[in-house]
């Protein structure tokens, strides 16, 4: 038989005419809940100013027909918490609460009220429905941290997002909040997700985002559009590749390269619908970027940016016009700077009103160019050039940098220098590699 143990006094239980009745663990006191014990708190605020020790499978059940709170000046760590409030009443968090095993909603609401509900790894949220659920339109969020290596339909904490990927995401923080996100004059539903993996590049992931009918915030369910933001202000339309299921209340997106913040807006709220953004390495070390859109309402242009560390970016150029094809607008941009090593690229998508957001990152690994050889050196007549790729541009300069001669064409592997006076010359090949040659 399950038991309940009170172990340390003082423990006070009192009421005031001007406030709700309270069950208080005073400063310096400890409430011990032995393993598998149950504490039922009916129509009382739970205030922890002292300490609470919750044994395995111990339960704190917050019940009754009045709305109450849980808070205090001390940290709160429970094993299991049950919300069982009649008549749509709620439990309000007045302090962050951490749970080791499970939070169960039998009846009523749990209002985050600007605070965090932290589920330890392996802990879950259960029992949510259209009448019993976690909310928090004024702020706060539920959070869990899990390790995800090639997850297959993983549902961290049962918070309402299901993740699949062949990649190793590492330690991943998943947060669910209920403040409606805003983009311009548009407001989204009362639910968003922050997904923050340790490894957040080239994930090729699928994510299913669930919602509840009371969270629709006046948006017709059949018009829901998935949106993504990297700065919590500007949003990108992610409806391309998205499946909507209004019967089971979810939107599912495939081909996700990176995670950030996600929510849902109504149709027409988000101006840019990016179908894909890809990068590849072409001949002669040229990086080719391609992308496509299907919706560009109130959109201005794309800014192409590059980085060597995926953190600090510089602008390479801008693209404002695409090519219509099959209902899409197709775009391309080439990076022919002769880069070496690994470069990361992103698009800064800028609207007419100046607001913007970023695309996913793409990575291109540039192969190191083989060295260009020149022989004989010193040279008396003909200088022969050997390179791992076609030589199409040759420029001869003196040591002062004065250009003496230029050549353009195909396979320029011989430079005729018999007529040049003796001295040192600079030979620039394909506009990049410079060789120093001695003419006898």
Give a structural overview.
It is a single chain. With 440 residues, the chain is an all-beta fold. It has four domains: 1-135; 146-269; 272-366, Sandwich (Immunoglobulin-like); 373-439, Immunoglobulin-like (Sandwich), CATH 2.60.40. It has no helices and 43 strands. A hairpin with a 6-residue loop joins strand 23 and strand 24 (236-237). The radius of gyration is 31 Å and the shape is elongated. 34% of the residues are buried.
Structural class: mainly beta
Helical content (DSSP H or I, runs of 4+):
under 10%
Number of helices: 0
* Number of E-type strands: 43
**Termini separation:** 103 Å
Structural shape = elongated
Q: What's the rounded overall pLDDT mean? A: 90
Count of discrete structural domains: 4
Work out the radius of gyration: 31 Å
Largest sheet: 12 strands, mixed
Main traits of this protein?
single chain, 440 residues, mainly beta, Immunoglobulin-like, 4 domains, 12-stranded mixed sheet, 7-stranded mixed sheet, 43 strands, elongated, disordered N terminus
Give the topology, please:
Blueprint: E1 11-16, E2 19-25, E3 30-33, E4 38-42, E5 45-48, E6 51-54, E7 59-64, E8 68-71, E9 76-85, E10 90-93, E11 97-107, E12 109-111, E13 116-119, E14 124-126, E15 133-135, E16 141-149, E17 161-164, E18 168-177, E19 182-183, E20 186-187, E21 192-197, E22 205-210, E23 225-229, E24 236-237, E25 242-245, E26 250-256, E27 261-265, E28 272-282, E29 286-296, E30 299-307, E31 314-319, E32 323-325, E33 328-335, E34 341-351, E35 356-358, E36 362-366, E37 373-375, E38 382-386, E39 393-397, E40 403-408, E41 414-416, E42 423-429, E43 433-439
Parallel strand pairs: 2-5, 3-6, 4-7, 5-8, 7-9, 8-10, 9-11, 10-12, 11-13, 11-14, 12-15, 13-16
Antiparallel strand pairs: 1-2, 16-18, 17-22, 18-21, 19-20, 21-27, 22-26, 23-24, 23-27, 25-26, 28-29, 29-33, 30-31, 30-34, 32-33, 34-35, 34-36, 37-38, 38-41, 39-40, 39-42, 42-43
């Amino acid at each position: 038989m399950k038991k309940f143990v009170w172990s340390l006094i003082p423990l006070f239980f009192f009421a005031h005419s001007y406030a709700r009745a309270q069950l208080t663990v005073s400063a310096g006191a400890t409430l011990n809940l032995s393993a598998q014990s149950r504490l039922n708190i009916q129509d009382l605020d739970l205030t922890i100013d002292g300490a609470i020790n919750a044994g395995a499978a111990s339960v704190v059940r917050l019940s009754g027909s009045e709305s109450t709170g849980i808070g205090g000046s001390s940290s709160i760590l429970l094993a299991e918490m049950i919300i069982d409030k009649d008549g749509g009443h709620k439990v309000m968090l007045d302090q962050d609460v951490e749970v080791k095993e499970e939070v169960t909603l039998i009846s009523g609401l749990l209002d985050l009220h600007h605070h965090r509900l932290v589920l330890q790894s392996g802990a879950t949220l259960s029992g949510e429905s259209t009448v019993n659920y976690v909310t928090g339109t004024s702020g706060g969020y539920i959070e869990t941290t899990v390790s995800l290596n090639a997850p297959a339909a993983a549902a961290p904490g049962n918070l309402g997002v299901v993740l699949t990927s062949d990649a190793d995401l590492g330690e991943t923080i998943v947060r669910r909040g209920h403040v409606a996100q805003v983009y311009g004059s548009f407001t989204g539903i009362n639910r968003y997700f922050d997904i923050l993996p340790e490894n957040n590049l080239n994930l090729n992931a699928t994510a299913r985002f669930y919602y509840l009918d009371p969270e629709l915030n006046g948006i017709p369910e059949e018009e829901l559009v998935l949106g993504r933001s990297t700065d919590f202000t500007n949003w990108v339309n992610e409806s391309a590749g998205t499946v909507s299921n209004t019967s089971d209340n979810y939107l599912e997106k495939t081909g996700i390269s990176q995670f950030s913040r996600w929510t849902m807006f109504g149709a027409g709220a988000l101006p840019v619908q990016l179908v894909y953004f890809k990068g590849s390495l072409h001949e002669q070390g040229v990086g080719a970027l391609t992308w496509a859109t299907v919706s560009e309402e109130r959109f201005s242009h794309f800014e192409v940016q590059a980085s060597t560390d995926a953190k600090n970016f510089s602008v390479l150029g801008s693209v404002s016009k695409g090519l219509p094809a099959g209902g899409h607008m197709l775009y391309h941009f080439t990076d022919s700077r002769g880069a070496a090593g690994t470069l990361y690229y992103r698009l800064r998508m800028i609207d007419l009103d100046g607001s913007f957001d970023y695309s996913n990152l793409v990575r291109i690994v540039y192969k190191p160019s083989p060295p260009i050889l020149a022989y004989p050196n010193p040279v008396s007549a003909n200088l022969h050039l050997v390179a791992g790729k076609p030589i199409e541009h040759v420029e001869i300069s003196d040591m002062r940098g004065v250009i003496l001669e230029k050549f353009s064409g195909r396979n320029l592997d011989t430079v005729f220098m018999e007529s040049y006076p003796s001295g040192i010359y600079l030979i620039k090949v394909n506009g990049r590699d410079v060789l120093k040659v001695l003419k006898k």
